[in-house]
Amino acid sequence: MARHTQLLLCSLVAVLGAGCSLVVGFDRDRINDGGTTSDSGMLDGGPRDAGPDDAAMTDAGPECGNGVMNAGEACDDGNTSSGDGCSATCTVEPGFECEGFGPDSCSAICGDGMVVGDEVCDDGFTTPCGACNADCTAAGTGSTCGDGVICTDTERCDDMNTMSADGCSGDCTMIETGWVCMGEPSMCAETCGNGVLDAGETCDDDGNEDDDGCSADCQEEPGWSCAGEPSVCETTCGDGIRAGMEGCDDGNTSAEEDGCSDVCAVQPGWMCTENAAGRSTCMTVCGDGMVRGTEVCDDGNTVTETACPYGTAMCTLCRADCGAELMLTGNVCGDGNRHPSEFCDDGNMMPNDGCDAACTVETGWLCPGAVGAMSTCNPICGDGLIRGTETCDDMNMNPNDGCSATCQTEMGWTCMGAPSSCSEICGDGLVVGAEACDDRNTNACGLCNANCTVARTYVTATGSLTVTGSEQTPDGATFTLANGTVRPPGISVVFELDTDQPANCAPAAGKVCIHIRSDLMLSAAQVAIATREAINSASGLGITASGSGANIILTNATLGGSGNGATGNEPITSTGGLTTTGGWTITGMGGGVARNCGGGVGCTSSDDCRSGMCSSGSCTTP
Q1: What residues does each domain of the chain span?
Q2: pLDDT by residue (tens digit) across 333-349?
Q3: CA–CA separation, 574 vs 587, rounded Å?
Q4: I need a labelling partner for 166 at 20 to 30 A (CA). Which of 51, 125, 398, 437 fits?
């Protein structure tokens, strides 16, 4: 033992740089006695002695192993043996705990997993159900997962089954992430979604849904930042991970236009896609009508047009790749080139010509013409509508009813309305439709009546005289004949009967004397002969006398001449008692037809005119 002590001291001296040969012996009882180093440099672990000579280089203080607490000692069990809890240098050995000083002051720590001292075993626990019993004196009883009893040596929980994903793992060694288990047997409940950050959770937003920043198992999702209880999660714009309501995330928050804005929204005119890591790559959308990025133009499609849209004469469109502008022309209504979307195109935009300003065929027209050609429009004759050059449309194409097969008003007719109602024009000189005649006037004169319904044949006015013998004829009696050429007064001649001898009647203008001597007792036939001769000799009268015996037939004789027809129906007047005392009988003139239209009245024949002359469709003035 002295040799062992010498070696230990030698080691200490070597550390201090002093030779071992300087020490030839030491007092074991002075080791670690709490003394101080002597004036000569000798190490003294114990308290300084109270000897009278400080230079004596000796220390008579207590030492480790004396069972008494000395300064600097952690323990002192009264010996310097190791393995009993307090080491030879009075320090507590691993696996032990020491209370107080003296024998039996140190004991092994059961449950620290170190088998020391009088321990038979130590499984790190102080429960009897593990590999070691509660005081480390014998083997434990062991544990069975699923029996409902929690052995803390090996089990964190026991829910009376060996299934996983119900809070307690299948081997009872751990409470599964997102669960809390309490009691024996363990009652487990999910903790994820309760709004409280529990063990293993990086967030808890009081819910159990993915893609809201905090996953269904309460883990912070990529691209999100969550804080608080319950957790409030927000996306992190510019981190290169598109998450939540972000339309894109290209890894920056630049305000410049690159497709993804500084608030991670897809900018108009761009399209963004994500790679597997969630980083957005943005490119312009050609064909959306917005010029973005490197686009030169964008006309809203990805077609390389060859012409302007219909209705636009000139336009600037865009190539299919939005890389170049195209200057083009196109069809418009009225250019005379019928487009497939047009029903017609007659080269103008005027209405009422068959093709209207919208290049639609107007009602009542036909506009044939192929696509690419000019349309020619014609009204539809027979449809009851009057269009274009039509002057009538009676809903048929029959001729001679007033409206022709080409919907033109026929001569002699007038047509009104649509559908057209056509009627004959009485007085125009044309006999059409139901007209019986037409003498170019609507007067009752001439060869046709006033409404053109009755055609009359020219008839000469006639009259008659029945005379008696000279002995009955009063001297100086007269009768007057007029041919009616001019009214008033007309051409008339007075015939005076002179029965005196010698004659006392003096002829004059418009007067003719008829000498019938009463002394000769002329018969009625003889008187009639003399009267006929006198009438026929009257100049300009135009009335001829004929007959036999006592009868005189008077005729407004000259056809085509003056006084014939209705204008010749001039009554024969008499004076001097010719018809009363003289016994003469007078009729007429009467029965004449036509030749009674005055000057300027329409006519078709001279027999219509009182003047006897029809010139250029009108009766001349006598």
Answers
A1: 462-590
A2: 999 999 999 999 999 99
A3: 11
A4: 125
